[in-house]
Design brief:
This protein is α/β, with parallel strands linked by helices and about 325 residues long. The chain has helices at about 15-25, 30, 50-55, 70-85, 95, 110-120, 160-170, 185, 235, 255-265, 270-275, 280-285, 295-315; strands spanning about 5-10, 35-40, 60-65, 85-90, 150-155.
Length: about 325
Amino acid sequence: MVQAKSVVFVQLSSCWGCHQSLIDLYEKLVDVLPALNIKYWPAVVDFKEKDLESLPDKSVDAGFVEGVCRTNHDVHLLKLARNKAKLLISYGTCSSYGGVYSLANLSTREELMKRKYLGAESLVNPAMPSGNLPKITTSIKKNDESVKFDLYLVGCPPTTDNIADAFTALIQGKPVTPYIKTVCDECERNKEEKKNVKKYKRRFDGKPDLVKCLLNEGYLCLGPGTRAGCGAQCPTKANLPCDGCYGPPDGVIDQGAKLLSAIASIADMPPEELDKQIIDPIGQFYRFTFAHGLINKAVKTLTDERRNKEQKSAEEES
Ligand code: SF4
Ligand code: SF4
Ligand code: SF4
């Protein structure tokens, strides 16, 4: 009988979708769960942080990290997970590339706090919280700028098939082969007809054809610059464009730049018109990988300038 693998599941700032997807394995859990010796999983079982801290270093077979470091406490947890686990797995696109949360790097902390506590449309009694606040990191960095990972399981969230394959490999002690192609390579749509796009559409414009390539039809499908692995589930199974949630394929440093270049190369329109038609280019092309892209460094200089200004005016007021 195979000995159960000891595992910890660490949740940083995140939506819990990746951990929830593990539960979505349904009947496959019957094979997976008995083969795991869960040492820490506070999202599901009432573990306390001291349970993780008290584990001897490198005593855990595998640690799964979900989310990003938005607070100093997240950074502490991430380093703790690295110390305890022999194999550290970056679980999901947030942990691997910064995910949607890293778009927060476009704003300073003060701007974010004001937006959340004073400006959100759903607020009833807007007020800034004053006590028991965690220390917030100045920006969201990729987790692997702080610790080394042994494996990346990407996706927002990863598909249940990808998760099942990763756990089966872990349990059987086999390597996981990363997907190196793009979503287009997995897509079953007809890619033969290449045409120049005169108008880009939002996903709610009209009704997409069921077999033609969505990008050729003018929908912003990000398959050409997105890592394969999900089975091209949005374009193939849901008649929806790919949003790029599996991040960049191998060899691509900046997914947004790659995507923008793919979209621009088939656009039959002047640059100013393309600029008008792509309403939110950063949200569109860097939705999942802002912390990973080269753009993060350029924008950081601008937000640092705003941050310094805020700091200066706070000092002047006090
Ligand atoms: S990768 Fe997606 S599903 Fe997973 S924690 Fe981040 S936002 Fe949630
Ligand atoms: S652009 Fe989209 S629809 Fe076209 S082949 Fe690639 S993934 Fe499929
Ligand atoms: S098709 Fe694109 S957006 Fe949809 S799951 Fe796959 S990588 Fe993510």
